[in-house]
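Whiteboard transcription, Tuesday session. T.W. wrote the C-alpha cells on the left side:
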C-alpha cells in the first residue's frame, strides 16, 4: 500500500468508465430492494462518493460490515450518476473492510449532534461534514498565509516557544520552570542558587513572538512568524484558547501606513484564496452555520477598508445615540459592541482604527507628538470586531526607555530589546493575528474551540 493515493476529490472529478478503487470511511448506508447505497468519504473534499452495490455483486456477509464509521475500500467502475448533485458514482463489485465499527457503540452515529458533544469525541469529529470542512479550510488558510508572505519576499522565522522575557504583559503566562513560585504577582525561583534551575531564571511559554521578530526584522528587513502561542486566559470565552497559533509579520523601513496596507492586502488575499479554493466547504458554512458568510467575505475582498483615528471613532460613537452597554469616552478601550457598530452600522466595511490613547496600548508602540496617543492600528471587521492588532514600533531609545520606566516595568529585563534602538535602529512596524480568529471569521463557526483539532482551554486538555 503506497501513500500515493487517488483521493475521492479526484475520483469525483473523473470521467465515467474507469475502473477505480475508492478508500474511505462510511458516512451512511441505505438499502432498498436488491440494491445498497453507501456514502463514503476520505476527507479530501466535502462531497461524499456514492457507492452502489447491486445484490449479488458483493457477498452479503461482507456487506453486513459496511456500517457507519467502518473503514473500507470499494473496487468497481465509475458510472454516470442519475442522482442530482454528483456527476459520477461507483458501481462496486469488490470490497475490503479494513476496520468495522460496531453500530451499537460507534460514537459518531447521530445526525445533528451538538458541537459540545462532538468536542468530547474530538478524535472522531473530523469524519463529519462540519469538522472535515473546518480542517480543510484550516489547511488551505495555512498555505495561503505562507504563500502571501513568501510571494512578497518575507522570510519565515521561528521565534522561541520557551522564553524568559515576560513579553509585554500581553497575557497571563504558563510557567515552564519546575522551581517557580509567585509572590505578589512576581515570579521567583524556589532554589537558593539559580544555577540549580534548568534555565537559571523563570521561564514560560511564549505569549507572542513579536519582540524576537523585531530583532530579526532589524537584520533581515521583512520577516514573519506563524507558530503556537500560549496564554493562561482563565476565561470560558468563545474567543480565547490557552494554546493558539499566531501570525506576526514585522517590517523594517515601514511605518504605520505600510503596516495598514499590508494588513488590508493580507486579509483580502487570504480570504480571496479561500473563496476560490474551498468553495464547497464555504458554501456549506454559508448554508448551515452563518447565513451571511459568503456575502460578507466577498464584501471584505472587494471594498477598500475605511481608515480613521480612534479619536474620530469615539466622536462617531458618542454621536450615535446607541444604547451601548459599556460607556464611550476618550480613553476607553473599545468593546466589541462598539467595534461592531462602527463596522456594521456606520461604515458597512472593515475599518482600520489608528492612534489609540497610549495608556490602553503596549509599551513598545511609537508615541505621537501629541504626547497622548501611539501609532497603534487595529483592523475591525463586521461580525467579529477586532481581527488584527498592530503598530509602528518605538524606535527611539530615549523615548522607549522612558516609557518602560513610566509603566513600572524593569528596564533590565529589556536590555537586548533596548539594544536594538541603541545600535542601528530603524523605523519598523508589524502586527499580530490570531489564526483561529481568522478561521472563525471565514467559517462563521461560533466557538474558537471548534476551529482547532484539539482545543486547550481551562479544564480542557484531552487527547
Ligand atoms: P483580546 O482582547 O481578544 O484578548 P489581545 O488584545 O489580548 O486580544 P493581542 O495581545 O493583541 O490580543 O494578540 C494578538 C492577536 O492574537 C489578537 O488580535 C487575537 O487575534 C489573538 N489572540 C489573543 N489572545 C488569544 C487567545 N487567548 N486565543 C486565541 N487568539 C488570541
Ligand atoms: Mn487578551
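and on the right, the sequence the group agreed on:
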Amino acid at each position: 500500500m503506497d501513500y500515493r493515493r487517488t483521493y475521492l476529490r479526484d475520483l469525483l472529478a473523473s470521467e465515467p468508465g474507469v475502473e477505480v478503487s475508492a478508500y474511505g470511511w462510511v458516512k451512511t448506508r441505505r438499502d432498498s430492494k436488491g440494491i445498497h447505497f453507501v456514502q463514503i468519504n476520505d476527507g479530501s473534499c466535502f462531497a461524499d462518493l456514492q457507492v452502489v452495490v447491486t445484490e449479488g455483486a458483493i457477498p452479503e456477509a461482507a456487506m453486513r460490515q459496511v456500517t457507519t464509521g467502518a473503514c473500507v475500500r470499494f473496487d468497481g467502475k465509475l458510472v454516470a450518476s442519475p442522482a442530482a448533485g454528483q456527476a459520477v458514482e461507483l458501481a462496486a463489485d469488490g470490497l475490503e473492510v479494513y476496520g468495522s465499527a460496531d453500530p451499537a457503540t460507534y460514537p459518531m452515529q447521530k445526525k445533528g449532534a451538538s458541537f459540545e458533544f462532538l468536542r468530547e469525541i474530538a478524535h472522531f469529529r473530523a469524519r463529519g461534514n462540519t469538522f472535515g470542512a473546518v480542517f480543510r479550510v484550516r489547511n488551505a488558510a495555512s498555505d495561503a498565509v505562507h504563500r502571501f508572505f513568501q510571494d512578497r519576499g518575507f522570510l519565515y522565522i521561528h521565534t522561541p516557544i520557551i522564553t524568559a522575557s515576560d513579553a509585554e504583559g500581553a497575557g497571563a503566562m504558563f510557567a515552564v520552570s519546575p522551581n517557580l513560585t509567585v509572590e505578589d504577582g512576581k515570579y521567583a525561583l524556589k532554589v537558593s542558587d539559580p544555577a540549580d534551575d534548568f534555565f537559571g531564571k523563570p521561564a514560560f511559554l511564549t505569549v507572542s513572538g513579536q519582540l524576537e521578530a523585531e530583532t530579526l526584522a532589524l537584520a533581515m528587513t521583512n520577516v514573519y512568524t506563524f507558530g503556537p502561542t500560549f496564554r493562561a486566559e482563565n476565561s470560558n470565552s468563545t474567543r480565547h484558547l490557552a494554546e493558539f497559533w499566531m501570525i506576526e509579520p514585522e517590517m523594517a523601513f515601514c511605518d504605520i501606513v505600510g503596516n495598514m496596507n499590508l494588513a488590508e492586502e493580507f486579509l483580502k488575499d487570504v480570504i480571496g484564496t479561500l473563496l476560490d479554493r474551498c468553495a464547497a466547504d464555504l458554501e456549506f458554512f454559508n448554508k448551515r452555520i452563518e447565513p451571511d458568510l459568503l456575502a460578507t467575505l466577498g464584501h471584505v475582498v472587494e471594498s477598500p477598508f475605511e481608515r480613521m483615528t480612534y479619536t474620530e471613532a469615539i466622536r462617531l460613537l458618542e454621536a450615535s445615540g446607541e444604547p451601548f452597554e459599556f460607556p464611550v469616552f476618550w480613553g476607553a478601550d473599545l468593546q466589541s459592541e462598539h467595534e461592531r457598530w462602527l463596522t456594521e452600522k456606520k461604515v458597512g466595511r472593515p475599518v482600520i482604527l489608528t492612534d489609540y490613547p497610549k495608556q490602553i496600548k503596549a509599551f513598545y508602540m511609537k508615541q505621537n507628538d501629541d504626547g497622548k496617543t501611539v501609532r497603534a492600528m487595529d483592523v475591525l471587521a463586521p461580525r467579529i470586531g477586532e481581527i488584527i492588532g498592530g503598530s509602528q514600533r518605538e524606535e527611539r531609545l530615549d523615548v522607549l526607555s522612558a516609557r518602560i520606566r513610566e509603566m513600572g516595568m524593569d528596564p533590565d529585563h529589556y536590555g537586548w530589546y533596548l539594544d536594538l534602538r541603541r545600535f542601528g535602529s530603524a523605523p519598523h512596524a508589524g502586527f499580530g493575528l490570531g489564526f483561529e480568529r481568522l478561521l472563525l471569521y471565514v467559517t462563521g463557526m461560533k466557538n474558537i474551540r471548534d476551529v482547532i483539532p484539539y482545543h486547550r482551554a481551562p479544564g480542557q486538555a484531552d487527547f
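Someone added at the bottom: The chain has a mean pLDDT of 94.
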